[in-house]
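Please go through the sequence and fold tokens given here and tell me how the chain folds. Record follows.
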Amino acid sequence: MSILADILERARGTHRAVTIFDLDSTLFSTQQRNHTILLEFVAMVGAPQDLARAVATLGPADMGWNVIDDLKKRGFTHEPTLQRLRSFWRDRFFRDEYLRHDLPLPGAVRYVCDLYAAGATIFYLTGRDEPGMGRGTRASLSSHGFPLAGDRIHLRLKPRFEDDDLAFKRRVLLEIRAAGDVVGVFENEPANANLFAEAFPAAQVVFLETVHSPNPPPLLPTIARVRDFER
């Protein structure tokens, strides 16, 4: 039985089962969001020829965790332009209106729906912030068909953009424990995955092999790995 199927079976057989999902690069790919912002930058600022050539080699599937690194890997290293892009990207990536470009990972919608139908409580626990991304997050979840209404659905975003992601998720642990027994956790950041593996040793923590921040800690050996939610 696969890890995903095993968690679903545990949800069916556990009273007050709880599952936890990060959003960016876990349930949703952010690659199209990054690519859209990069194309907007080229169109709005008037790209030098070498930047235009580098961008022409990048499709959404080529986008990694950092658009600056993506360009440097393709030979574009003009630092003044990269600094402008960094500011341009930051002003857009963390905003409601750009979340409509995100696409669910393969199988993600059906898997979360299956867990909810099995009786599990769903915690969407994300490092997105409520002021800048709350409206867009709810619209994106709803438009793609993720369960969003009901007593067993909880969406938790950071109250402020400046709050540290890991510290915020650590603060929510008590609320999650009170909701029931955690059977599955899904994360793309190794530090966050390790936090949940230590906090919920009886749960199966699953690491999404998508993109993550640089210089991560090693994953704990109990953490499983998947590329998406296809079973």
Observations:
- The CA atoms of residues 96 and 135 lie 6 Å apart.
- The two ends are 10 Å apart (CA to CA).
